[in-house]
């Protein structure tokens, strides 16, 4: 579903480039993997027109999720906010909303670590001027979906800029190869002890029975953590229609939530 949701964004973006208009009139629902990059695209292209959804409920949801403020009481969502504004209060709210009567401490630790590491990766590597986050828990559908987007130099761009680990030689690699190296622990930082953030994030999310989608520049990867029989990742080479100026990281955590103690598992 994450890949399909991203393709929905690509369709809206393609139509906008042709018609200078985003038409949401027939929209039936929005997932973060569609709405977050779309809202960012519209924010960066203010000359593009927008037709709002005809459906009253969808219109209200679109207005609520894009108004950049978090309700004071626990809800099943975090609307689009700047990633740097994410702190423990917002993360507490989303896991309080998604957890039932069970102990919430482990999922709180896991989500805080994952979200904190993603924010740190953006700060350390992206060189962006826009980084945003959105999350929605779909109890009836049986999952939580969360997305990060930044308009920085991309994961491949960060590797190309640093040219680390290749003894000064220029390396001709595809964007998807750089992404694969990043999730396997390669780092663009010269000092030791780096490069564990993204691999740890992937391991925790997989242990939480999550599906993960990352697209950055012209490379993308899909990791199906909900399928214990699927041991390999799906790699994509993006074309002009699907490439992204920036990086999108989305994940879906399935219900019932598989609680992960990140200290006992040795992630830290």
Description:
It contains eight helices and nine strands. The chain has helices at 2-19, 32-44, 56-65, 88-98, 105-126, 155-162, 175-183, 197-207, and strands spanning 21-23, 49-51, 77-82, 131-138, 143-150, 210-217, 219-224, 234-237, 244-254. The protein is of the alpha+beta class. Helix 5 (105-126) runs antiparallel to helix 8 (197-207) and helix 6 crosses helix 7 (175-183). The chain has a domain at 73-254: Heat Shock Protein 90. The two termini are 30 Å apart. The longest helix is centred in the middle third of the chain and has 22 residues, at 105-126. Helix 2 (32-44) links the parallel strand 1 and strand 2.
Ordered list of secondary-structure elements with their pairings:
Layout: H1 2-19, E1 21-23, H2 32-44, E2 49-51, H3 56-65, E3 77-82, H4 88-98, H5 105-126, E4 131-138, E5 143-150, H6 155-162, H7 175-183, H8 197-207, E6 210-217, E7 219-224, E8 234-237, E9 244-254
Parallel strand pairs: 1-2
Antiparallel strand pairs: 3-4, 4-5, 5-9, 6-7, 6-9, 7-8
Helix pairs in contact: 1-2, 4-5, 5-8, 6-7
């Amino acid at each position: 579903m994450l890949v399909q949701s991203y393709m929905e964004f690509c369709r809206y973006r393609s139509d906008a480039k042709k018609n200078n208009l985003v038409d949401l009139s027939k929209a039936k629902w929005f997932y973060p993997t569609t709405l977050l990059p779309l809202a960012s695209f519209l924010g960066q292209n203010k000359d593009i027109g927008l037709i709002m959804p005809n459906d009253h409920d969808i219109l209200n949801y679109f207005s609520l999720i894009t108004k950049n403020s978090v309700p004071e009481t626990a809800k099943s969502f975090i609307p689009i906010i700047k990633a740097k504004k994410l702190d423990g209060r917002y993360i507490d709210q989303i896991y309080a909303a998604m957890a039932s009567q069970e102990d919430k401490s482990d999922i709180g630790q896991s989500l805080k670590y994952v979200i904190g590491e993603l924010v740190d990766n953006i700060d350390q590597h992206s060189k962006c001027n826009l980084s945003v986050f959105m999350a929605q828990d779909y109890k009836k559908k049986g999952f939580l979906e969360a997305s990060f987007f930044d308009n920085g130099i991309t994961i491949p761009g960060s590797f190309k800029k640093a040219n680390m680990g290749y003894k000064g030689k220029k390396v001709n690699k595809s964007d998807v190869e750089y992404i694969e190296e990043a999730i396997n622990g390669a780092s663009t930082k010269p000092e030791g002890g780096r490069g564990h953030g993204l691999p740890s994030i992937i391991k925790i999310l997989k242990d939480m029975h999550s599906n993960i989608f990352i697209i950055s520049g012209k490379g993308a990867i899909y990791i199906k953590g909900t399928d214990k029989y699927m041991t390999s990742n799906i790699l994509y080479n993006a074309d002009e229609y699907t490439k992204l100026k920036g990086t999108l990281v989305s994940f879906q955590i399935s219900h019932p939530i598989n609680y992960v103690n990140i200290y006992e598992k040795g992630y830290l």
